[in-house]
Please model this.
Amino acid sequence: MARLVYERADVVPMLAEVFRELGYDGASMARIHERTGLGKGSLYHFFPDGKEDMAAAVLADIDTWFDRQVFAPLRLDPPEKAIDAMWRTVTEYFQGGGRVCLVGAFALDGTRDRFAIAVAGYFQRWIDALSDALVRSGRDSRLARDAAEEAVSGIQGALVLSRALDDRETFARAMTRLARRLRD
Amino acid sequence: MARLVYERADVVPMLAEVFRELGYDGASMARIHERTGLGKGSLYHFFPDGKEDMAAAVLADIDTWFDRQVFAPLRLDPPEKAIDAMWRTVTEYFQGGGRVCLVGAFALDGTRDRFAIAVAGYFQRWIDALSDALVRSGRDSRLARDAAEEAVSGIQGALVLSRALDDRETFARAMTRLARRLRD
DNA sequence: AATCCAGTGTACCAATCAGTACAATGGATT
DNA sequence: AATCCATTGTACTGATTGGTACACTGGATT
Model:
């Protein structure tokens, strides 16, 4: 009989999807087991501190992904190119509004207090990186920060609204609107 | 010894605050008891179907409140006046970013499926009402709808971001930005 | 072939979960 | 004064919660 053997890195993305769908409190160990196929033995082997450990790992994973795919390019690549790439990458990552931002979802309920530093850091670094790109493209420093904040905030709003209305067109419209706002 | 006697209408706002802070799954009956002071007897007396019943009542309550305080004025009052009032009312209601939108929070996790109609209806009516006011103020119908969507979406994003950064200034800045966008 | 050890499955625990049952309270109605 | 009934407190249930303990598997190392 075949035996599936995972390592920690394989488990984190599955956990991310579970937390995304069910939220932190909604994701019980039983449901995590159901959706990942991993038994308690494996789960506590990889994440000795249980659920909190899992969520922290997921947040760290999301963080490094965005750092590499979005934030670093914004800081290093030609600004116009990096910003264009950001819109594409983000739209794909959130599957056009069909996939929720876990960090944003955590921010809204009591889970925030538990992961306050990770949650704040994620958004702060996003705004910083985007602001940096805008400054490098010749924008005034103060205006750049305001515009970056508007974009990041707008993406989160678009996710909430498109998910609430269960309509990806809403998300698509918001993204083109925000991209245009950022160009002016 | 004094005995506190509530009626259903007194309980709903307390429940709203509990769900707001803890989320739907985070709000256990024990915690609801703690924070409201009501025993299980009272809670199941008012809400025979338990938590789901409570959340539905809270959503309905929020809905009627917004209908009266925000949506109806947008449809009936002089548009510029009504829109100005909307920004004031909303800022006060969300306590400058310190208070979360329960409907938005529900939209992000698995709770949405349970209350999909109420959640979608809330945002749809908000967009419709604001769009109506913009049309009445002379805006083109298509542009009005787009602008209304941007505003409602933007408010939700501002709530997520200001809560994530734990900074009300972020919310305040977003509100003035959105109000200006709506005027152009 | 013997050992090792990362990864697994299962049985188990106390605490908490949502929900039920029902007797007690006490203001209002008659 | 007797009755009524909305509201409340408490004791209880069975299911589920997060978490622990531990024996087992099987590929890799020696």
Remarks:
- Residues 3, 5, 28-30, 40-41, 44, 50-51 of chain B lie near DNA strand C (CB under 10 Å from a C1').
- DSSP finds ten helices and no strands in chain B.
- The mean pLDDT of chain B is 96.
- The CA atoms of residues 48 and 54 of chain B lie 9 Å apart.
